[in-house]
Design brief:
CATH superfamily: Ribonuclease H-like superfamily/Ribonuclease H
Oligomer: single chain
Order of helices and strands: EEHEHHEEHHHH
Number of domains: 1
CATH architecture: 2-Layer Sandwich
Largest sheet: 5 strands, mixed
Number of helices: 7
Helix content: 40-55%
Strand content: 15-25%
CATH class: Alpha Beta
Radius of gyration: 17 Å
Length: 194
């Protein structure tokens, strides 16, 4: 992209799209041109354990030219649907990054976004492009921190363990207690369990 005249290229990714509870979080990250020399182990956040993600999160924040992390709650998802919520949180993260990116590399979004910033949608981008991997890590860590907070508020749901995803433990809590105030009530698995 730099050879096409773009200097501030942001990678963008989200976390929490498939969860049954909690928000969807997106991050946009502009990395320095010498990122490979810095030897930060950037990869898809799903390939890292929580302590590795936390450590790399701090490294990314320390060296990034710019970044933004944005959150859209379960209530927005229930009102508008997952697709619109996903596109909106990605746009929010991209628009609020400073300095403003002049090009976006967006992971796994199959529906084009309505952005004035030129962009490219890249399947499995978090495994191919450093800035998308960095965004993946920022979004995942930010969302995990939010879910740990919800675990303190709603301890019987064990959000710190499953982060709102449809695990056996989560299903068991739902069957026993019904949905919490942060569950995505529009989701078919939640409707089927309640």
């Amino acid at each position: 992209m730099a050879n096409r005249g773009f200097n501030l290229i942001a990678g963008v990714d989200e976390a929490g799209r498939g969860a049954w509870a909690g928000p969807i979080v997106a991050a946009a990250v502009i990395l320095p041109k010498n990122i490979l020399e810095l030897k930060i182990p950037l990869r898809d956040s799903k390939l890292l354990n929580p302590s590795q993600r936390e450590r790399i999160f701090s490294q990314i924040v320390a060296v990034a030219v710019g970044f933004s992390i944005k959150v859209i709650g379960h209530d927005y998802i229930d009102r508008n649907g997952l697709g619109p919520a996903n596109r909106e949180v990605i746009l929010l993260a991209a628009r609020t990054t400073f300095p403003k990116p002049d090009y976006l590399l967006i992971d796994n979004l199959t529906t084009p976004i309505n952005s004035t910033i030129p962009h490219e949608l890249i399947i499995k981008g978090d495994a191919k492009i450093c800035s998308i991997a960095a965004a993946s890590i920022l979004a995942k860590v930010a969302r995990d921190r939010i879910m740990h907070g919800f675990a303190r508020t709603y301890p019987a749901y064990f959000f710190d363990q499953h982060k709102g995803y449809g695990t056996t433990l989560h299903q068991s809590s739902l069957l026993k207690l019904g949905p919490s105030p942060i569950h995505r009530l529009s989701y078919k698995p939640i409707k089927n369990l309640i």
